[in-house]
Specification:
about 190 residues, alpha+beta, Alpha-Beta Plaits, 5 helices
Amino acid sequence: MSLLTKNTQLYQKEQKCQMSSIYQIYLGFGGNLLDTEKIINEALEELCANDDIRLVKASSFWQTEPQGDKNQSWFTNSVVLIECHNLPPHELLKITQQIELDYGRKRQKENQNAPRTLDIDLLSFLPPDNPQGHEDIHSDCLTIPHPRMFTRAFVLIPLQEISPDYTYCGKSIQDYLKEVEYTLDEKKIFQND
């Protein structure tokens, strides 16, 4: 490839970023099969290898008591904030679902709390025209905010770690956590169903 072609492609990519629709979105990562921290790190690297996605913040890993069936391994959870350029949320969902499949995710409609190698949830959408506000999305395949986001300590606690001032519908993370029955032991989250 010639230098002129390379420079032209670079210029086009820069123009695309400058003119693009940019938004931020929180994602929840989790899993309880195999080496989950390694899988989450690799999946996040794969996601951010996309030219339209940039990592903004990532929480530490939290160990979480399984919901529903307690006779399975504990989950490892994390929340990240990413920035997307010209990538509609529905397209981001397709990308995250493909990454889940790449890591052996098998969905079980009859058991939403089944063991899994990797789960990536789209949690909360911050639109480009109002980065301090939130936008709800409701379609056949995508609901944002995630329907169970505000009842899960394993989402709220890592979210609070990276965005302590986060609010939704006038309520802070602390307000939502007061409505959830959970216990913390260092980096372990115990939550009753």
